[in-house]
Amino acid sequence: MNSVRRRNEIIMDVRRSGSVSVDELMLAYGVSVETIRRDLRILDEKGIVRRTYGGAVKREQTTWDMPYYDRMQLNLERKEAIAREAVLLLEDGDSVFVDGNTTGLVLSRLIPADKNLTIVTNSAMVALNLVQKKGKLSVYMVGGEVGEDGMTFGYKLHCELRQYRFDKALFSCMGFGTQGIYYSKWEPLQIAQMMVEQSNHLILMADSSKANRSGFLFGMELDRIQTLVTDEGTPHDMRESLRETVRNLIVTSSDDQSER
């Protein structure tokens, strides 16, 4: 296992249990104490965990979000499974908004070139993935100031987005629970809230690392969302509660038997 994947799994271990020890990580991954200590030091320096004597604990900061390129590698297999299910919700003739979150980027790689879709995005990387397919897709990118993650933001973006109406909008969040969805930054929150008014069908793509996780900003109640696509790592009791609120819950499974 390479170091990036190991550190991503350590992050998930910390989020699930609240803490980890060097000894149990050495046993789980079959690496030296120096390797684990280096992993924990790197994660601590990035603000993801807090190192302690003999291990690390969860660092909860509602205003903090992991850097984009680190998030891109986190839970990649689960994001791919979620994206595959989300693609099945797209129909020929749909007008679609895809936001620039990491799951949206994965989704853009999986959308078939022969699908007759009109897609609008605020991400240069999503747009590039789509136009390179050279198929039936019509791709539009909304303008604005460009951030280091390749996404546009600001007043110009909001003005342009208000001109569109979509059949479906696919987006993500920092965290979700039975009360609703959460964000750490204003920009993705404002885009999601805008889509409530401008899209007929909201599709939230959120892997289980975001389950029962809150953020600094409350986005919206779950009953505003038509479809939530998550994975089997989302706790079973939480799934039962979500079914009472979300109109359509899709839970991806590692054995390709998704739960609907």
From TrEMBL:
SMART domains with a match to the protein in the record: DeoRC (SM01134), HTH_DEOR (SM00420)
InterPro entries assigned to the protein according to its UniProt record, in alphabetical order: Carb_Metab_HTH_regulators, DeoR-like_C, DeoR_HTH, NagB/RpiA_transferase-like, Tscrpt_reg_HTH_DeoR_CS, WH_DNA-bd_sf
Name of a matching Pfam family: DeoRC
Residue ranges of domain HTH deoR-type in the record: 3-58
Keywords: DNA-binding, Transcription, Transcription regulation
GO MF assignments: DNA binding
Family matches, as SUPFAM superfamilies: NagB/RpiA/CoA transferase-like, Winged helix' DNA-binding domain
Recorded superkingdom: Bacteria
PANTHER family on file: AGA OPERON TRANSCRIPTIONAL REPRESSOR-RELATED, HTH-TYPE TRANSCRIPTIONAL REGULATOR SRLR-RELATED
Protein name, UniProt field: DeoR/GlpR family DNA-binding transcription regulator
